[in-house]
Amino acid sequence: MSILEAAPEPLIAAADESDAIAALHAAFAAQRAAFAADRMPSIEVRRERLMSLIGMMAANRERISAAVSQDFGAHPVPASDLIEVLGVIGRAQHVLEHLEEWMTPSERHVDALLGTAKAHVQLQPKGVIGNIVPWNFPFDLSVGPMVDMLAAGNRVIVKPSEYTPACAALLAEMVAATFPADLVHVAVGGLELARAFSSVAWDHLLYTGSPNVGREVMRAAAANLTPVTLELGGKCPAILTPGSVTRTNVESVIGTKIIKNGQMCVSVDYALVPRGDVEVFVEHARAFMAAAAPNYSNGDECTGMISTRHLDRISEMLSEARDRQARIVTLQDDETVDRVTRRMPMSLIVDPAPDLRVMTEEIFGPLLPVVPYDNLADAIAGINAGERPLGLYVFGDDTSVTDGVLASTTSGGAAVNTCAIQSALPSMGFGGSGMSGMGRHHGIEGFREFSNQRGVVVRGEGDMIDAFYSPYAKAAGLVQAVLSGS
Ligand code: NAD
To answer: 140-187 pLDDT, tens per residue?
Structure first.
């Protein structure tokens, strides 16, 4: 079962959405017309748009934080500032620094048969791009990719998740106050709108969310042969290689896990730990939580689950593990679940049976299976037996060992001696592999993803292009010359 099926009761009612769908089609038509009138915005125009985006995020920092807290029930303000606001601004600043270089056509080699011809690859805007956003990072995953899309000269329509109504309303207001609707527009609605959105004949469609819905989105896009970028989820492992179960490394695993209370696509889903070091891992985890976030689920460090259904889903996974006699280590004294702010303690599930839901589904919440292994090859084989993860984290000081883990696994991204940071670098493409997604945004990779990479040849003199035209008898000498290398 996907997180989507089990989780959030829709918070934006899916009543009659015909008005929202009509507004979407009108916005798309307006953007198409505006794109047709200006297919290659200048660097100055793109810079201006990115500066407006930065200004919009900075001016609304406090409102963004308040909207995120409202939708999640509870949310640390510094985490909103860092991820939802400053992360997006940093991304735009990086693009501004590199835009000229990225927009410059890249010269390509031409062989002697083409004489003095010149060739280059020109990155053109694709046109009008749709972005379907999930609930977990409502601004980072809407305005973040917008940076790459606008930088590449496109027009953008964003559809926020129906589970973050306060964020969706704020985003729509901010965008309408900053950009004309034929450049950037926010379409707010429920599931009917979401389905209609993926059926629009976009020039490119970005979807971030669960693999099951990703399939539906790709199916709808296929009808228009719309190219898609799918940013999906999965089970990201942290592998602690022998000798690496140190205080610092365990802090890195648990510290990452409590970001957004585990509701992060690149969170550590489970930890693979040498069997003899499991108790050391547990003790470091306890000590970290006692120092960093005592009474975690009742304090300021803890984000609420997005909905009571999602909270119930995580509680059910924990109950199943308990009923099946898995060892549960709760990382705080007070074990109560607060259904008002939708928060519960962080728990380790030590040595879970492989058929438990915590081992077969993406968790997306405050549970961390600690899976013992007897040798590293078995741990790697276990990872490779599952779907390719979005992120893979390996800990250890011996680079021959950590390099070996990287070489024998495939994932969308990876990090050594840390977790999740690969998803936050403005300079580096981010995305999945296999079931965790396809395509990239962030960095030059994102700029290229949202560009039409047009190869252009400009004919010169002294070429042999005519040899490709009939009658082919005149090509015989050329074929002979190529074969003999003369
Ligand atoms: P969600 O429920 O918010 O859904 C995502 C979006 O899909 C929403 O905008 C929703 O309206 C839309 N949607 C739902 N049904 C649709 C349909 N039939 N057609 C078109 N659109 C539809 O989010 P979710 O799916 O519960 O998100 C959690 C998942 O997202 C997890 O698996 C997580 O790992 C993944 N995720 C991935 C990334 C990444 O960058 N790879 C980032 C964040 C989350």
So the answer is: 999 999 999 999 999 999 999 999 999 999 999 999 999 999 999 999
Determine the Cα–Cα distance for residues 105 and 120; give it in Å rounded to an integer: 6
Q: Quick one: pLDDT at residue 12?
A: 54
Q: How confident is the model over 175-229, as pLDDT tens digits?
A: 999 999 999 999 999 999 999 999 999 999 999 999 999 999 999 999 999 999 9
Q: How many CB atoms lie within 10 A of CB 241?
A: 21
The architecture CATH gives domain 18-233+437-453: 3-Layer(aba) Sandwich (3.40)
Residues labelled catalytic: 231, 265
Dist CA 247 CA 264 (whole Å): 23
Q: At 251, list the tokens.
A: 């802090």
pLDDT at 8: 47
Peptide bond before 471: cis, by omega within 30 degrees of 0?
Answer: yes
- So what's the pLDDT on residue 140? 98
- CATH number at 237-425: 3.40.309.10
Q: Which atom of ligand 1 is nearest to the CA of 132?
A: 9
Q: Ligand 1 in contact with 217 (CB < 6 A)?
A: yes
| Closest protein CA for atom 17 of ligand 1 | 195
Sheet holding 437-438, edge to edge: 184-186, 155-159, 128-132, 204-208, 228-231, 437-438
Average the pLDDT over 297-320 and give the result.
Answer: 97
Is the distance from the beta carbon of residue 209 to the nearest atom of ligand 1 less than 6 Å?
yes
**Is residue 432 in contact with ligand 1, taking CB distance under 6 Å?**
yes
Q: Taking the CB of residue 147, how many other CB atoms lie within 10 A of it?
A: 28
- Per domain, the residue ranges of the chain are 18-233+437-453, 237-425
The atom of ligand 1 lying closest to the CA of 191 is: 11
**Is ligand 1 within 6 A of the CB of residue 345?**
no
pTM (2 d.p.)? 0.95
CA 311 to chain centre: 23
Nearest atom within ligand 1 for CA of residue 436:
41
pLDDT reading at 482 higher than 90: no
Is residue 484 exposed (0-12), middle (13-18) or buried (19+ Cβ within 10 Å)? exposed
Task: Give the chain's end-to-end CA distance (angstroms, integer).
Answer: 64
Q: Which of 256, 289, 302, 264 is nearest to 395 (CA)?
A: 256
The answer, yes or no, to whether any atom of ligand 1 lies below 6 A from the CB of 232, is: yes
